[in-house]
Amino acid sequence: MSQSAAAAMRAAIHDLLDGLSREQRERACLPFEDHAERTNWAYFPRRTRGVALADLDHRQQKLVQRVVESGLSAQAYARARQVMAIDDVLDGIERGRVTHFRDPALFYLALFVDDTQLFEPVRGWRFEGHHISLNYTFARDGLLAVSPQFLGSNPARISHNGFDIYRPLGDAEDLARELLDALSPELRAKAVVHPEAPGDIVLANLPFVAESDAAANLLVRTQMTGRGVPVEPFAALRFDPAHPLGVAAEGLSAGQRELLARLVVHYADRFPAGATWDGFSDSRELHFAWAGPGEVGAPHYYRLHGPSLVVEYDNTQDGANHVHTVVRHPANDFGRAALALHHLREH
């Protein structure tokens, strides 16, 4: 993947490390070979390892934001900044009940490093907090992986006098609805997998999509059940890497495939130029699955699933005003496939 994107990230990381104290650098830098930590990603609010924005001065926070900006397109960076800022609004909505986690300063940057001769000292990085998780893995001359990438928002929409004043992920919904509404009754029946949407993304924060199996999906459903969320939609939407759900792109008309391609481009455009992968390039291999009613305002979920791409979207919680979106590579999240090939060749 893109050498220029990797170079921009490395330059931003270099500037950040120059601007941190020794103690801050030690907190930010984690061992790359600690794969359990490196793949321990989440989109819910928590304290995690790395250096928090709250522990940095304004100049240092700006340096962290430049690292984040280097990993996203301009429009995706704008969305991410909105997602961070909305935590203050959410804190007001919740009237301080969970203030500890509703804080735009509780976002953490972790740099994964080692001293091998085969890679640069920084081999990957993660930026994470409430409703954001960005994960990147470097090769010597480019990027091995840029996923998982998660963006969410709670609330998903704030309106006033009939106008939306905040809806950073609105096109992720609108483009999918346009495709759903364009399907014939026969194709729509294939696309709509269950009449009820699951209470969250089905794969949750499992480290690797390729390892998704009945046990892992059962664990997720059990967690949802403990929160009073119905199990049936999760069972209907159980992820099987080899058997995509929904309607196949090859069965769509040219106009419908164009709508699907526009939806795929929405997610591809979140990454810097050249930093996506083959899964985005040909939407003809994808399947599109929907769960829930088709009416605007009702809880809903959809999935894009192809050989090299998985996208999950849900808007089900808090009265269907709480959205999650995630982009994953079925085989190469955290550079897993590329690193395995390197290990096979070199060791």
Return the string of H and E elements: HHEHEHHEEEEEEEHHEHHEHEEEHEH
Distance between the amino and carboxyl termini:
24 Å
Number of domains: 2
Largest sheet: 13 strands, mixed
Derived from helix and strand composition plus strand pairing, the structural class reads alpha+beta
Unreliable parts: 343-347
Roughly what percent helix? 25-40%
Rg calculated over all Cα atoms: 20 Å
Q: What's the tally of helices?
A: 12
Strand content: 15-25%
**Outline type:** globular
* Rounded average pLDDT: 89
Number of strands: 15
In short:
The chain has twelve helices and 15 strands.
Features:
12 helices, single chain, 347 residues, two-stranded antiparallel ribbon, 15 strands, globular, disordered C terminus, alpha+beta, 13-stranded mixed β-sheet, 2 domains
Structural account:
- This protein is an alpha+beta fold.
- The protein has 2 domains: 145 residues, no CATH class; 165 residues, no CATH class.
- Helices cover 37% and strands 20% of the residues.
- The strands form 2 sheets. Strands 1, 2, 3, 4, 5, 6, 7, 10, 11, 12, 13, 14 and 15 form a 13-stranded mixed beta sheet that branches. A two-stranded antiparallel ribbon has the order 8-9.
- Helix 1 runs antiparallel to helix 4 and helix 6 runs antiparallel to helix 10.
- The C terminus is likely disordered.
